[in-house]
Design brief:
226 residues; 6-stranded mixed beta sheet; 13% strand; Rossmann fold; 39% helix; alpha/beta; 6 strands
């Protein structure tokens, strides 16, 4: 059986500060580093051997992936980086404290922006520019709903991840809460009105065993206390 493992990066400084992050590039905290190493140990205890690793362009995901691979003694693996696995773009909310936003707009609106499928956060007045995306000809979004996030993630899944799984090659994805929630929705057929109940915590690997048609045979979530 082929295995797909998906991991949300370790705790970032923005997670610790309770701020919206999106495409902002923030560092891991000491706890985030520990979580990355712990994930590697947990996966090593499962005897998992991967063929490829996929991450976003965000350093919190890339560095977490490296800690995982170090603990697995699989640092030689190719790491495929793509903007399509970037966190959802939170638009004008980026950098704001979530508790402050909640005071301003209320619990229901905050929940819709954070956990809903269709709700688009307040947009930026104009797109940010970053050399990483400018050189690809990719324009940063003004803001994204989870539905928009899934729309940009799916081509990468279909072109790069699914074919490798179909070839019997175990795959590791280290990405972000929203992009992984979008993939969980797609893989498990979760409805748009139930996806708000799905949470992907930092540093808790989701292990899927899939058949040769990518049907899920078994799902397990590994946890370790901090």
């Amino acid at each position: 059986m082929t295995q797909l493992v998906m991991v949300r990066h370790g705790q970032s400084q923005a997670n610790l500060d309770n701020r919206f992050t999106g495409w902002s590039d923030v560092a891991l905290t000491a706890k985030g580093v520990a979580q990355g190493k712990a994930v590697g140990k947990m996966l090593a205890n499962q005897g998992l051997v991967f063929h490829d690793v996929h991450t976003s362009y965000m350093k919190r995901a890339i560095i977490t992936a490296n800690y995982i691979l170090d603990e697995l003694d699989q640092l030689e693996l190719p790491i495929h980086k793509t903007w399509r696995l970037n966190e959802r773009h939170y638009g004008a909310l980026s950098g704001l404290n979530k508790a402050v936003v909640k005071e301003e707009v209320g619990t229901a609106q905050l929940h819709a922006w954070r956990r809903g499928f269709w709700a688009v956060p307040p947009k930026l007045a104009h797109p940010d520019h970053d050399r990483r995306y400018d050189r690809l000809g990719v324009e940063e979004p003004l803001a994204e709903s989870l539905a928009m996030c899934l729309e940009r993630v799916l081509p990468y899944w279909q072109d790069q991840v699914a074919p490798r799984l179909l070839a019997g090659q175990n795959q590791l994805i280290v990405a972000h809460g929203s992009t992984l929630r979008a993939l969980v929705k797609y893989l498990e057929g979760i409805s748009a009105d139930r996806i708000d109940q799905v949470e992907v915590p930092n540093g808790e690997p989701i292990i899927y065993q899939v058949d040769d048609h990518l049907n899920i045979l078994h799902k397990e979530i590994l946890t370790e206390g901090y």
